[in-house]
Design brief:
about 220 residues; Jelly Rolls; Immunoglobulin-like; about 10% helix; Putative secreted protein (Por secretion system target); Secre_tail
């Protein structure tokens, strides 16, 4: 009985591994589906498997690509860079049930165009209508209640050393540095310093600086080159 149980688990894990797909860049261009502004969602109710969708993106902004409202098809989505040479993200069954729709959430690592390939599993064309939603997530730290108006961060981009000028901010502030996966790289409690200096000992890429007081919070983008 125990041997049979572990054999079943092994088969399931093998199936999950097989179902992870990176589809080749061979779909046919269908249309552009770029949200007009931060916080907006645009939809197309009838994308087919085998279609290619373009979306204009902005460095540091997060975009959601979802077919979760299509509940009857086993779908795969593959996100490529502008040239179609590099895979940025991929998903199969990410909406929940096994052998179901796909969803991708991706933070842009450049400003330009991405290519989204929509396929019926594994990487097939089809004639079934698929509802595709593309959302430009609302930018953090834009509300008046959460902005440190006088803060400046420089140099940005930086090669290593970063300065944060808090100017006339009198509240105690907690500083945190995050990577694009949300991992905390650095935390510092600032009490009276007007200018804070730190070294970003991390690979080239996009990072986020969060400044938080008792009643305010703001998040800034920082590029390491």
């Amino acid at each position: 009985m125990e041997k049979c149980f572990f054999s079943t688990i092994a088969i399931i894990l093998f199936s999950l591994n097989v179902n992870a797909q990176n589809c080749p860049f061979d779909n046919t261009f269908y249309r552009d589906l770029t949200p007009p502004s931060s916080g907006a969602t645009v939809s197309d109710p009838c994308v087919f498997g085998g279609d290619l969708i373009t979306v204009n993106v902005t460095l540091g902004e997060t975009y959601d690509f979802s077919t979760c409202s299509t509940n009857t098809l086993d779908l795969t989505m593959t996100l490529y860079n502008t040239a179609g040479t590099d895979i940025l993200a991929t998903d199969d069954d990410g909406c929940g049930p096994f052998a179901g729709p796909a969803t991708i959430s991706w933070t842009a690592t450049y400003t330009g165009t991405v290519n989204l390939l929509v396929d019926e599993f594994p990487c097939n064309s089809g004639t079934n209508c698929i509802t595709l939603d593309v959302t430009w997530q609302e930018t953090l730290g834009t509300s008046d209640d959460f902005v440190f108006d006088q803060v400046s961060i420089y140099p940005n981009p930086t090669s290593e050393v970063v300065y944060i000028n808090l100017r006339d901010l009198k509240d105690a502030v907690t500083l945190q540095i995050f990577d694009i996966n949300g991992r905390v790289l650095h935390t510092k409690r600032i009490l009276q310093s007007k200018v804070v200096q730190f070294k970003l000992n991390a690979p080239t890429g996009l990072y986020f600086i969060e400044l938080r007081s008792e009643d305010r919070k703001s998040i800034y983008k920082l590029i390491k080159n």
